[in-house]
DNA sequence: TTGTACGCCGTACAACGTACAGTGTTATAG
DNA sequence: CTATAACACTGTACGTTGTACGGCGTACAA
């Protein structure tokens, strides 16, 4: 060690290089480190995933972590891939593309809501991991009934997943909500004064949207609206219904 | 000072509280700090916007920055709002909704490509700023010809902008591209070995998509594809053509 | 038995945001 | 004119972060 990121990503594959057999046997494994990091991130956010806290959680010294992971950046890639690897991938059976795409969208939404820290990991190297590739393969299969060219198929999947990602991002609770609520009485007055009669459209629509959000309606209108739009868009692409 | 974030956001408004008149007059203004921060972020990324570097760029002591801005988090909000405020907002004239939406999408893409650091600022308080509100108002106006309910109108705009945001994100150059290229000869071999015959769909489509990306085709196929899909989706919502 | 590959760890460093306690300057109140 | 209060500005210091480096002890290979 340190093994390269690729080998760490594929550490469960039979062909993956295993560390030599000399020296004391490891008290924790790379997998342990990744799992502990995910637990930390789930409960306290990605910012709380520090090498020191990780070491403490695993009851090892700080620098020991670097025996199992090359550095924090690489760790984040391992975490993201592990999250993708753990998603369920039920067979689609005889489902049509609409149901399939809906399933894909909902599965990704659920994933991002369970692990909001995935939003904060933006590293292209994740694409090399087994979890990411398995997920990609399974989701492409959802689009097969549409009969698209390979490149178009990839673009369509990107389109769907980008929508889900953005929606999930918006649904994520704002860590500053408390501060916002605290200052709101004062700020709303000032904002009203600044706005005056300007921007009638924004004020009208903004107020309506704000009320709708506060109301007990669907948890997110944007989700229902957007998903319907995405399906509409793909339908315009599909061959005429059989 | 420190004035509250709201007053800092609206610092150019006539009703905004101006600092008292006693004491030496300020060598730099809040606006200067924000502008310097934007310049720094444009050239070296948001991570390089540190209080110390900012102070150095403005030729003031580190702690002086806190006289003009409440802290780094607030500064990021001011930067984002300033970027939105500076966007051009040409009147739509007699344009139909398709052209309008296309303009909005392209303007946002251009903005995000000019200031990629906007992706890294995720703070709801930005919504209180004059630039953000002016932008929202102008973009809502693009959707007026569609004749939607206020809440739907907001959802439709969110749909469009989310698409643009995700596309711009994907277009953003990976800071780790160098490292990736360096290790690629070795990694591609290992990845091939790990993959073997598995995931034929992902391997086929991935290869095609990779080639298309490398080819001299459109800078991004996902953009053209996605924008067409977004317009299709809104069309399904529109009243029958007059 | 010896050598060596390996897991583990303590110390140290540079960089970060920012709290705090000043210092000096200026418009205003008396 | 003087005293005061408000203000811009600054140096020092603390707690935090990632991680480079060198050393130590263990357990298998020769």
Would you mind describing this structure in some detail?
The structure is a homodimer of 242-residue chains. The first copy, chain A, is mainly alpha-helical. Helix content of chain A is 62%, strand content 0%. Chain A binds a DNA duplex (30 and 30 nucleotides) through helix 4.
Radius of gyration from the alpha-carbon trace of chain A, in angstroms: 23 Å
General form of chain A:
flat
Number of β-strand runs of chain A? 0
**How far apart are the first and last residues' alpha carbons of chain A, in Å?**
56 Å
Contiguous uncertain segments of 5+ residues of chain A: none
Strand content of chain A: under 5%
Q: For this entry, what is the oligomeric state of its chains?
A: homodimer
Outline the biggest β-sheet of chain A: none
The SSE string of chain A, one letter per element, is: HHHHHHHHHHH
**Helical region count of chain A?**
11
Query: Which two chains touch over the largest interface?
Result: A-B, 70 and 70 residues
